[in-house]
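Hello again,

I reread your note about wanting to compare the complex against the isolated chains. To keep things tidy I'm splitting this into two emails, and this first one only covers the full assembly. Below are the input lines as submitted, including protein chains and any nucleic acid or small-molecule components. They are followed by the predicted structure of everything together. The single-chain runs will come separately.
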Amino acid sequence: MAQVDSNKGGGDFISNLGRIYTLYTGGFFAFVVVLAILEQMGVPNKFIGYGFVFLTIAVYAIIGIISRTAEVGEYYVAGRRVPAFYNGMATGADWMSGASFVGMAGTLFLLGYDGLAFVLGWTGGYVLVAILIAPFLRKFGAFTVPDFFAERFGGNFARFLAVIVLVCCSFTYVTAQIYATGIIASRFLGMDFTVAVYVGLLGILLCSMLGGMKAVTWTQVAQYIVLIVAYLLPVVVLSTQKYGIPIPQLTYGQALQDITALEQSMVSSGLADAATLKPHIKPFVTYDPLNFFALIFCLMVGTASLPHILMRYFTTPSVREARKSVAWSLFFIFLLYFTAPAYAAFAKLEVYSDVVGRDLDSIREWLFNYGAIGLIKVCGVDAVNLEAVKAACSNIAGHPGVLRLQDLTINPDVIVLSTPEIAGMPYVIAGLVAAGGLAAALSTADGLLLAIANALSHDIYYKMIDRNAPTFRRLLVARILLVIVAVCAAYTASTKPADILSMVAWAFSLAAAGIFPALVLGIWWKRATTTGAVLGMIFGFGICLYYLVGTRYFAPGFYEMWSFLSNATPDQIAKFAQLQAACASDAAQCAAFDKHAQSIANWWGVRNISCALFGLPIGFLTIWIVSLFTPAPSQRIQDMVDATRQASGEAIIRDKDALNLPH
Amino acid sequence: MQQDGARHWRRTSRLMWTMFVLWLFFSFIIHMFVIQLNTIVILGFPLGFYMAAQGSLIAFVIMLFAFAKLQDNIDREEGFAEE
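Full-complex prediction:
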């Protein structure tokens, strides 16, 4: 009886979604207006900032607590009742991390055209998700991605491998998200970084612990609305101010023309150094074409392999809704990604036309706000104030007393954060941007944490350790593991690990190499066998990991072993020998030696971020060859593959069986 | 409705490969001609830059809504649609 009631309650909630989230969005706008009025009345900025951060986190926590559940199906797959449209929004929030929100536009600002590899790579992968994977996994009826591996590839060894890949990729990623919440909170609220990390942790746990996937889904929808409003509003206002049209995605073409003209005039007037200036629209300045396309490829295939994304499509009511939901996901992600180039162009135009070329005495004030927190350097020192800048520049021989482009070092995070100030908007908008960045980081952390904890509780504990565990104990274990993983990630983040940001990019290549070949062939090729898949996963993931770790942490040894495949020039080889000798005689020289070795330790010049370029073909080839040499899968497995390909009919793993329910 | 699993899968696979080729085109092939495309300028946007910043993304979104519709039609016509 109780169960029937709760289902009915859930149904009412689902049918009222439109009204609930419209009200929520209206309430959010009203909240922004109230804070804007308070600001005009003279309430200090610090309180406005705190208001934004704590009230939004409180709202997410309330949604998380209302959505608490004691049912396994609700906890793992939100009861499979999330409509395509809302699942799309939740996926958008799940997908767009703190780094996408804060750093994407900055990367485009610094790299120009070459940075667009990230824009393409982080969107196009959804085509692969839709046509190759998501609808089939939904039909399969899995609770987690490793569930599929276990059923299709006969047992717990394949499941275990999938769990290892999943945990390796997701853990570094979630650490980076918690790190991002710490950075945002400490920057805007002046909180201590370590304290900020644990406050972020609390926000994440309140959203996810009681309600699992159900709670995470409905908070992610709420977080998406905050983050997209926060991202679009400043740049829309800026576009209206400058060009009179509130569509920045259309108006920044003019900015691109102005940027190109300014680039030429700065070089000819000596304000920019032709050697260090990267023309904004010129391709292949930072990456050669091989690495540009390899990066797009690895990010796309990685998108289609990351379990926290794939598991979102387990929550839709049907296979048809799962397909539609991928389309909505990409649409909601697209709204942010196709705006990022506009942010970058407007910021660049501002810097080129109104920052560079000014007399040091009339330098723009907003630079000092970011110089004070170490994000902008002028003439090699943090631009704390005018005196510091003038002193540093006067130490440079032949400095003309005018700010030149090469004097300026801007951290990519500044671009999105400073846009409200550049456009002269009130502080409330800056607070809104901080709330948006926080929403992006929290929502991604929730999804990742759930992916890890579910794999450990469902796949390892329930499926491999105790098949007879009662529902109550399964949910208890899931929640305890969630807290343990979250605390470990927060602790790791609080130590500020040096390579954390590059590790996130690695997660894509590792997931692609470890998961993608076995997943796709498992669905699309009936002949793929257990031995083939297991070896393919081991070799694909192994070669990718070997390349990453070798080129990053053991570069000299890696180079010496594979020097015949390296793209090092004769000069670089000579320098390698010279630095090696220096390192042997003086340990202080070894850092420079290692740094140089990293630049030439490679196969055909491929950067280690794209290691899936090697892992994927090896994974596919291994599965193909080994499968042909091993006996075909049983008729039962082949029938199962047939059934996954048809939208109609019962799921392969029926929820009833998976839930271990008595009826 | 007559169910024909083999024909359903043939049509499904053909749709997958069509989408896959479009994906290859908008992800990689068109961007190989960025330098030539950049000589064409529309509303201030060099076309090669525009395709990477927005054009391909718009194509991906349209492709996915079209795919959902087309695959659903195949499922209905071959009798494999849900309910």
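For quick reference: The mean pLDDT of chain B is 93.

B.
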